[in-house]
């Protein structure tokens, strides 16, 4: 196998691994949100006990707490702030779109350089 083919295969494998990790992280985040919405824990008055949350969801819990989506209601009780969640999702969507545009521009520039160098 040529080095270009090996590199392409390695890149494809890395993309697949990253996609799988991203999907797993999103699945955990969705499970945590479902836990709060399933218990109607959407305000300080309807907050749930922190120890009712599956320990396997600690990473997304920390992420959402750090971003203000999961809030402390006092007495070791937590609730989901839907407005903050909507804002975080909108920000992620904008960031993803900007990254995609940047990658596309860079791909076109790299392709143009390759064509120029190939014809040189």
Order of adjacent strands in the largest pleated sheet: 1-3-2
Outline the biggest β-sheet. Answer: 3 strands, antiparallel
Helix percentage: 55-70%
The helix tally amounts to: 3
User: Could you tell me the number of beta strands?
Assistant: 3
Query: How are helices and strands ordered from N to C?
Result: HEHEEH
Measured between the Cα atoms of the first and last residue, the distance is 27 Å
Proportion of residues in β-strands = 5-15%
Structure classification: mainly alpha
Mean pLDDT: 87
Oligomer: single chain
Write a concise keyword list for the protein shown above.
3 strands; 120 residues; 3 helices; mainly alpha; 3-stranded antiparallel beta sheet; 69% helix
What report would you give on this structure?
With 120 residues, the chain is mainly α. It has a domain of 78 residues. 69% of the residues lie in helices and 9% in strands. The protein is built from 3 helices and 3 strands, in the order αβαββα. Strands 1-3-2 form a 3-stranded antiparallel beta sheet. It is elongated and about 70 Å long. It starts with a helix and ends with a helix.
């Amino acid at each position: 196998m040529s080095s270009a083919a090996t590199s392409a295969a390695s890149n494809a494998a890395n993309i697949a691994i990253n996609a799988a990790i991203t999907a797993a992280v999103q699945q955990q985040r969705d499970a945590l949100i479902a836990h709060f919405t399933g218990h109607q824990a959407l305000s300080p008055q309807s907050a749930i006990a922190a120890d009712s949350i599956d320990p396997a969801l600690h990473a997304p819990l920390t992420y959402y707490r750090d971003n203000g989506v999961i809030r402390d209601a006092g007495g070791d009780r937590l609730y989901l702030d839907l407005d903050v969640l909507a804002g975080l999702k909108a920000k992620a969507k904008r960031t993803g779109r900007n990254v995609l545009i940047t990658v596309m521009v860079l791909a076109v520039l790299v392709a143009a350089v390759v064509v120029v160098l190939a014809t040189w």
